[in-house]
């Protein structure tokens, strides 16, 4: 379908105040830059997940890509086309919002069909649009799409289906349009369906079935629960077979079971249709299981872009290390003694020799040691082990997590779910030296060894 390229994007909102202060009225209207230096390429057909804390700019970034918000600087490319100044309708992007944004006066059926009925119009509009360079336009022939070099790429199944629908809509005569509009509210047997209407009907019903909203097609949005509205919004985007899907936490209102099911459906569907997808979520499991790659954002900037396992195994900095993984990684301040020794007032750890080169430059200096909860194990008193006291026990059945007091810190530790633990119990923990992470205490960047050496 289409590669999406974000090139050095910035977004600044004008006239929004910072924190109130006594001098506030004396200062000029403030500007807030909420996105900085966003460089990201989402490959054709890729499923890219955006994660980051609330307010880091995820929704704003999606709104820039969709055209609902203007960029302050930079470039956005969808396929061969620079879309910076194109209105949303001409970008061939379907967005599922964090809030559902359904048409309140239309039934579920008509909400799903709405974008499809307008496809004919938008195809004509696009073909005649001066904003789209003629050779990069989306005008198609029956065999493919012409790209900016004038080469014809084969149509994907989704493109082919859209192309057929557009052709059927274009061939519809005025009386067919009138008749189908006039009979739309009548019972099924009395409705007039043109060939285009039949294609739309089939697509609406397939999508509705897939999302389990087929029993709700005649309802209005106000007659739906939050989770049902969310599925209609998702269905509306899916039905359109766009070049690009933008999804902003589309599953946040579903219950756990439906969420897992819908998650799998979205992934299957995305693989089937190959539609380039950018998906925003807060949910660790969604991010790790859905994304081909994940972009981790913080305070308007991308911190790291990598596959889920690469992020888990080799986080680029302390922020990513703390954000990916649940419960999060533990951090301890330790001192380096070359060649490969880490010292803390209460333990000394010897690292694998692969660390020696890197640690030479930190000899005698403090670094931040990162240990994931799953990389501790119960052990016996020894200089390399940590004496801890159990403060909280979270037994989930399949696994147990302990919060344990170590020195001034509270550490999260994963332990054997079959062994009982008591509050106040004293334990000794061993750290797996093959699995540790080190960070510079000032820049917070990860101190790395060649990835093939580690784990
Ligand atoms: N129209 C606007 N005017 C001024 N500031 C805005 C506007 N829209 C968003 N912001 C600010 O931009 C920042 C990023 O907001 P955004 O909605 O993109 O965050 P988010 O990562 O999607 O958060 P969440 O996970 O809570 O949805 C926030 O600080 C927000 O207050
Ligand atoms: Mg948001």
Structure notes:
With 455 residues, the protein is an alpha+beta fold. The protein is 27% helix and 29% strand. It folds into 2 domains: 267 residues, Rossmann fold (3-Layer(aba) Sandwich); 118 residues, OB fold (Dihydrolipoamide Acetyltransferase, E2P). Helix 2 packs parallel to helix 7 and helix 4 packs antiparallel against helix 6. The longest helix has 18 residues. The radius of gyration is 27 Å and the shape is elongated. The chain binds adenosine-5'-triphosphate and magnesium ion. Adenosine-5'-triphosphate binds next to strand 2 and helix 1.
Report a brief summary of the structure:
This protein is α+β, with helices and mostly antiparallel strands. It has twelve helices and 24 strands. The protein folds into two domains: 42-308, P-loop containing nucleotide triphosphate hydrolases (Rossmann fold), CATH 3.40.50; 330-447, Nucleic acid-binding proteins (OB fold (Dihydrolipoamide Acetyltransferase, E2P)).
Arithmetic mean of pLDDT? 85
What is the fold-level CATH name, i.e. the topology of the largest domain?
Answer: Rossmann fold
Q: What is the gyration radius calculated from CA atoms?
A: 27 Å
CATH architecture of the largest domain: 3-Layer(aba) Sandwich
**Spans of at least 5 consecutive residues with low confidence:** 123-154, 451-455
Strand content: 25-35%
């Amino acid at each position: 379908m289409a590669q999406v390229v974000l090139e050095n994007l910035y977004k600044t909102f004008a006239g929004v105040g910072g924190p109130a202060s006594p001098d506030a009225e004396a200062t000029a209207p403030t500007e807030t830059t909420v996105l900085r230096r966003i460089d990201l390429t989402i490959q054709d057909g890729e499923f890219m997940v955006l994660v980051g804390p609330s307010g880091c700019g995820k929704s704003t970034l999606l709104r820039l890509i969709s055209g609902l918000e203007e960029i302050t600087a930079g470039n956005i490319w969808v396929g061969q086309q620079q879309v910076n100044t194109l209105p949303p309708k001409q970008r061939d992007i379907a967005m599922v919002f964090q809030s559902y944004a359904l048409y309140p006066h239309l039934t579920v059926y008509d909400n799903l069909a709405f974008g499809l009925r307008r496809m004919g119009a938008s195809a004509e509009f696009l073909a005649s649009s001066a904003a789209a360079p003629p050779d990069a336009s989306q005008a198609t022939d029956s065999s493919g799409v012409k790209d900016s070099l004038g080469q014809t790429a084969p149509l994907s199944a989704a493109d082919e289906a859209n192309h057929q629908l557009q052709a059927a809509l274009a061939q519809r005569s005025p009386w067919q349009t009138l008749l189908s509009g006039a009979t739309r509210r009548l019972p099924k047997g009395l409705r007039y369906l043109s060939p285009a209407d039949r294609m739309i009907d089939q697509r609406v019903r397939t999508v509705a079935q897939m999302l389990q909203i087929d029993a709700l097609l005649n309802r209005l949005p106000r007659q739906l629960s939050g989770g049902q509205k969310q599925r209609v919004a998702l269905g509306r985007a899916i039905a359109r077979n766009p070049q690009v899907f933008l999804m902003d936490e589309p599953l946040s209102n579903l219950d756990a079971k439906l969420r897992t099911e819908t998650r799998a459906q979205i992934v299957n569907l995305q693989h089937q249709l190959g539609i380039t997808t950018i998906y925003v979520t807060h949910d660790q499991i969604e991010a790790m299981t859905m994304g081909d790659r994940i972009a981790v954002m913080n305070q308007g900037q991308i911190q790291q872009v990598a596959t889920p396992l690469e992020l888990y195994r080799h986080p680029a900095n302390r922020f990513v290390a703390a954000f990916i993984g649940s419960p999060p990684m533990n951090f301890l301040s330790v001192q380096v003694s070359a060649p490969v020794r880490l010292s803390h007032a209460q333990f000394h750890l010897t690292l694998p020799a692969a660390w020696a080169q890197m640690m030479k430059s930190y000899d005698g200096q403090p670094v931040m040691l990162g240990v994931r909860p799953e990389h501790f194990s119960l052990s016996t008193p020894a200089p390399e082990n940590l004496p801890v006291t159990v403060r909280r026990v979270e037994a989930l059945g399949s696994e147990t997590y302990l919060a344990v007091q170590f020195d001034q810190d509270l550490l999260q530790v994963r332990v054997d779910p079959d062994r009982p633990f008591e509050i106040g119990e004293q334990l000794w923990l061993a750290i797996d030296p093959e699995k540790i992470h080190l960070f510079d205490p000032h820049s917070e960047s990860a101190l790395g060894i060649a990835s093939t050496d580690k784990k």
